[in-house]
Amino acid sequence: MKKYDELVRRALCAMKQAYSPYSGFSVGAALLSRSGKIYLGCNIENAAYSPSVCAERVALFKAVSEGEREFEAIAIVGGSSADAKDECPPCGVCRQVMREFCGDDFVILLGKKDGSYRRFTLFGLLPESFSPRQLEKEEAQK
Ligand code: THU
């Protein structure tokens, strides 16, 4: 699909901005909101290690901080020396952060440097997840 090809291309561009001097592993993400806007993210590491943040969360938090709440898809690419020769699946924490704002049908594209990608859904990568639904009041669930 043309718009998903474009999303993977944008993720490859975002990967170039990665700040990853400690791992040497660069990641780029491109997030498509339901409003049609694309938000980019890269991983940003820190000398103290634990404050490091993944590319997917940078893209999501940028979008949410701009008022977006609904999303259609995210493309993710990554690899050592920014080569993206293999797929870069999202870490568990990022899957959970996606779950906060995205439904089961949210599309996750795992791309490579040649622009090819495999398409997954959030349900496929995070089944039986804990979500905002679990915190809804009992009355509201009826
Ligand atoms: N990383 C991401 O940006 N996204 C992921 O889903 C997996 C890992 C980053 C974190 C760290 O900067 C580097 O890749 C190596 O783990």
User: What's the β-strand tally?
Assistant: 5
In this entry the ligands are: tetrahydrodeoxyuridine
Distance between the termini: 39 Å
Oligomer: single chain
Unreliable spans are none
Over all CA atoms, what is the radius of gyration?
A: 15 Å
- Spatial sequence of strands, sheet with the most strands: 2-1-3-4-5
> Major β-sheet, in short?
5 strands, mixed
**Helical stretch count?**
5
Q: Which descriptor suits the 3D outline?
A: globular
Mean of all residue-level pLDDT scores = 96
Written overview of the protein:
30% of the residues lie in helices and 24% in strands. The chain has a five-stranded mixed beta sheet. With 142 residues, it is of the alpha+beta class. The site of tetrahydrodeoxyuridine has 13 residues, from strand 1 and helix 2.
Topology at a glance:
Blueprint: H1 2-15, E1 25-33, E2 38-42, H2 55-65, E3 71-80, H3 92-101, E4 107-111, E5 117-121, H4 122-125, H5 138-141
Parallel strand pairs: 3-4
Antiparallel strand pairs: 1-2, 1-3, 4-5
Tetrahydrodeoxyuridine is lined by residues 20, 23, 25, 27, 43, 45, 52, 54-56, 90-91, 94.
Descriptive terms for the model:
single chain, alpha+beta, five-stranded mixed beta sheet, binds tetrahydrodeoxyuridine
Summarize the structure.
This protein is 30% helix and 24% strand. It is α+β, with helices and mostly antiparallel strands.
